[in-house]
């Protein structure tokens, strides 16, 4: 009897980010809601970019140098709004604003 091969939580998340745009949108939305740690947004966007073809492909689609995108989406990143918009568009998402509850 063959056992099912299990995958890590990280790999399961990457698969979902790669194949499910709604999951990726919810993942990014949850990161945006983390008021205590704004860098969570950058980490989430980097994971989505890596899952959606890799940093180099996303950087090219966003019109940003690959090295710059790595820097921007790091823990020490401090991106411009225009950069965030370009990257989210390159991965098939968009940033929106809604009223706070």
Structural description of this entry:
Helices cover about 60% and strands about 0% of the residues. The protein has about 100 residues and is mainly alpha-helical. It has one domain (about 10-90). Helix 1 (about 10-20) packs across helix 2, helix 2 runs antiparallel to helix 3 (about 40-50) and helix 4 crosses helix 5 (about 65-70). It starts with 8 loop residues before the first helix and ends in an 11-residue tail after the last helix.
Task: Provide a concise account of the structure shown.
The chain has helices at residues 9-19, 21-32, 39-51, 55-62, 66-72, 81-90. It is mostly helical and 101 residues long.
Main features:
globular; 101 residues; mainly alpha; 60% helix; single chain; 6 helices
- The run of helices and strands is HHHHHH
Give the termini distance in whole angstroms.
Answer: 53 Å
- Share of residues in helices: 55-70%
Give the uncertain stretches in residue-range form: none
Question: What is the percentage of strand-forming residues?
Answer: under 5%
Q: How many extended strands?
A: 0
How many structural domains in the coordinates? 1
Query: What is the 3D shape?
Result: globular
Tell me the Rg in angstroms.
Answer: 15 Å
Biggest beta sheet summary:
none
Question: Count of DSSP helices?
Answer: 6
Summing up helix and strand content along with how strands pair, one would put the structural category as mainly alpha
